[in-house]
UniProtKB/TrEMBL annotation:
Pfam families: Abhydrolase_1
Protein name: Alpha/beta hydrolase
Occurrences of domain AB hydrolase-1 (ranges): 32-286
Cleaved signal peptide residues: none
Molecular-function GO terms, alphabetical: hydrolase activity
Length: 297
């Protein structure tokens, strides 16, 4: 990694050894433990605007998912090494290394999928679960059946290796920044701090991490959706209190099922709050996102 701005001054760097390699995290603050988990195609740097205020109330643990940022990118084929189940196990190992058996969890995008999978797989680990701008994986594929234009990056990133890896590697900044601008409420990158963008570029320029992100989506097309279906068939639901923050410019689709309806099978009774803005609420609308998280957590 090149020299990058420290977006978490005063926070410690912590690395936990797992069966897949190292999981890197920033740790700081005081109070009950709270995991802040980033999404695609970012790193733990995405929480930098919320962390100072959250750290006054919580001990923050801000990991990079396996395959992202400064964490290890283990070898994998067909998504097996990047299911949300194994990513959730990474977080359990990291938190155990820090002395925490139970914790609060807030996740965005892929990180939110890790959080809800962990809440289903290991009930009791997560005390309160906040998800930012996702619906269940099974709901994404159902929406695609109704409208193939929904989330076109999902099937493309999940195509067999090495097709998407080679295409992205030809211009990773162009590909990932294009997605981020498309998903942001204003249609550009103005909401993102240049220092945070530098962290993202440094990570996604690495071929091993491009492969890891594709494996993440290959898991989402197969093993992750199968896990959702198995839970629904067995009647398993998320037992802890859950908040879902939905962006009006990205997730909420006029005329389509509401986020609450899409979550009903796995998280009946979940609280859903809609916020103005695009997909990257923690960076686009930090004050509103912070207020909603503090009120819930």
């Amino acid at each position: 990694m090149p020299d990058l701005a420290d977006l978490y001054p005063g926070f410690a760097s912590h690395t936990a050894a797992t069966e897949a390699g190292r999981i890197f995290a920033r740790v700081g603050g005081s109070g009950p433990p709270l995991v802040l988990q980033h999404g695609f195609p970012e790193t733990g740097a995405m929480w930098h605007r919320l962390a100072p205020d959250l750290a006054r109330r919580f001990t923050l643990v801000i990991p990079d998912l396996r395959g992202y940022g400064w964490s290890s990118a283990p070898a994998s084929r067909d998504g097996a090494g990047y299911t949300k189940r194994v990513m959730g196990a990474d977080i359990v190992a990291l938190m155990a290394d820090l002395g925490h058996a139970r914790f609060r969890f807030a996740g965005h995008d892929r990180g939110a999928r890790v959080g809800y999978r962990l809440a289903l797989d290991q009930p009791g680990r997560i005390e309160r679960l906040a998800l930012i701008d996702v619906v269940p994986t099974v709901a994404v594929w159902k929406a695609r059946e109704a409208d193939p234009e929904t989330s076109p990056h999902w099937p493309w990133l999940a195509r067999p290796e090495p097709e998407p890896e080679r295409a992205i590697a030809a211009d990773p900044d162009g590909y990932f920044q294009g997605l981020m601008a498309k998903w942001a409420g204003d249609g550009d990158l103005a909401a993102f701090a240049p220092e945070a963008l530098a962290h993202y570029r440094a990570a996604w320029g690495d071929p091993s991490r491009i492969h890891a992100m594709c494996e993440d989506y290959r898991a989402g097309a197969t093993l992750d959706v199968e896990a959702d279906r198995a839970d629904a068939a067995a009647g398993r639901t998320i037992g802890c209190p859950m908040l879902m923050l939905a962006s009006r410019s990205y997730l909420v689709k006029p005329g389509g099922p509401t986020p609450a309806e899409q979550w009903n099978a796995l998280a009946p009774g979940a609280e859903v709050v809609e916020l103005a803005g695009g997909h990257f609420l923690a960076e686009e609308k930090p004050a509103e996102t912070l207020a909603a998280l503090l009120a819930f957590l």
